[in-house]
Backbone:
């Protein structure tokens, strides 16, 4: 496998919609929380492989703004798993030179979780390896709306002319202002939509879909997605040059 890695053109930023935990559990007659726990194991495997491959940014859609509408018991289970991850995994990430980041609306998260996130980000801030980004309480429409609101305030204060607003202005007002746009988006479980995830940032991203539920997805599947990415001709709207 190491020889194969050397031959791959590795995307700088990979984003993942981790879908299918509940259906994975249901297919095995297990409660949904069992699927979420198994999904956390897949996160560990994929993070390890992404780091080995040399991917610079890995963004995982962990909990959407719409997920707050799920039954209270399931939300509590998910928050419990998040607490456990933040308490048990961050030291390991730090030892592997991985930087940890969170994007999303932290105001809806409990204070203890926000504190754990702040501590994890501070601990790993100087690490130079893979940057692991969790999208928590995240929704792309809310993110873009917030960017518009922020830019509008700058215009109203006379700090910016409306005529000077550019795509770069908008990008700089997003959660991902210092993160390059994804080169590759992976979605598991056989669904074919972006589900309010990084809609501005995905403008020129390559998409890879798999029928596998997230708990069945591991490092070898990430390698397969990167291999498929290597087959793409990324023209960014231009015409390919002929020989």
Residues:
């Amino acid at each position: 496998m190491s020889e194969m890695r050397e031959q791959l053109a590795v995307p700088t930023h990979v984003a993942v919609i981790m879908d299918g935990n509940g259906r994975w559990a249901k297919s095995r007659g297990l409660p949904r929380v069992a699927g979420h726990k198994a999904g956390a194991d897949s996160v560990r495997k994929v993070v390890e492989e992404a780091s080995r491959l040399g991917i610079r940014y890995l963004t995982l859609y962990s909990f959407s703004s719409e997920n707050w509408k799920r039954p209270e018991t399931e939300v509590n289970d998910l928050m419990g798993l998040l607490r456990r991850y933040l308490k048990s995994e961050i030291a390991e990430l730090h030892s592997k030179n991985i930087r940890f980041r969170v994007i999303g609306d932290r105001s809806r998260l409990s204070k203890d979780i926000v504190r754990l996130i702040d501590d994890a980000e501070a601990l790993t801030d100087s690490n130079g390896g893979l940057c692991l980004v969790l999208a928590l309480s995240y929704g792309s429409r809310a993110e873009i709306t917030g960017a518009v609101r922020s830019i509008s305030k700058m215009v109203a204060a006379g700090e910016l002319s409306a005529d000077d607003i550019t795509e770069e202005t908008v990008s700089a007002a997003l959660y991902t202002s210092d993160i390059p746009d994804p080169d590759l988006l992976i979605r598991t479980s056989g669904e074919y939509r972006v589900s309010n995830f990084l809609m501005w940032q995905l403008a020129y991203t390559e998409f890879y879909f798999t029928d596998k539920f997230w708990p069945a997805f591991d490092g070898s599947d990430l390698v397969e997605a990167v291999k498929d990415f290597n087959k793409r001709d990324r023209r960014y709207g231009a015409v390919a040059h002929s020989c």
Notes: The chain has one domain: 2-139+182-227. The two ends are 33 Å apart (CA to CA).
